[in-house]
Each structure stands twice: as structure tokens, then as C-alpha cells.
Specification:
By secondary structure, this protein is mainly alpha-helical. The protein has 2 helices and no strands. Helix 1 packs antiparallel against helix 2.
């Protein structure tokens, strides 16, 4: 993967992260329903995954080898 592609993916990830954070902020305003809990867990998971992918893209941009951390 070249650096330009990794940089583009990073911009897409940043936009997706803003959307997920916005959704999480909305969910923070809702008082305890089952749907809230499930959706909140999904946003936490997605933010974690976005962070991992963003880190991988940064490594590609910096020219380092990317591993899955296992």
C-alpha cells in the first residue's frame, strides 16, 4: 500500500470517527434502554477498531511494517 492511499484512508477514518463520536454523544443523552446499551457498546468497539486501523495507516505512512499486534 502506498503512502498516498494510506493518507486517504486516514482521512476517511477521521470522518468515520467523528460520526461515531457524535452518535456516542447522542447516546449519552438517552436514559438507559436496552437499545442504548447495545448501541453504546457498538460505538465503543468501533472507536477501538478505528484507533487500531488509524495507527496501522500511520505506520504505513511512516514507512514501517504493519502487524496485527498478535
Amino acid at each position: 500500500m502506498n503512502k498516498e492511499l494510506a493518507q486517504y484512508i486516514n482521512t476517511l477514518l477521521a470522518e468515520k470517527q467523528r460520526e461515531v463520536i457524535s452518535k456516542q454523544e447522542y447516546l449519552d443523552k438517552i436514559n438507559g434502554a436496552d437499545r442504548y446499551f447495545t448501541e453504546y457498546q457498538e460505538t465503543v468497539w468501533e472507536l477501538g477498531m478505528l484507533h487500531k486501523v488509524h495507527t496501522a495507516m500511520d505506520s504505513i505512512i511512516e514507512g514501517e511494517e504493519v502487524t496485527d499486534g498478535q
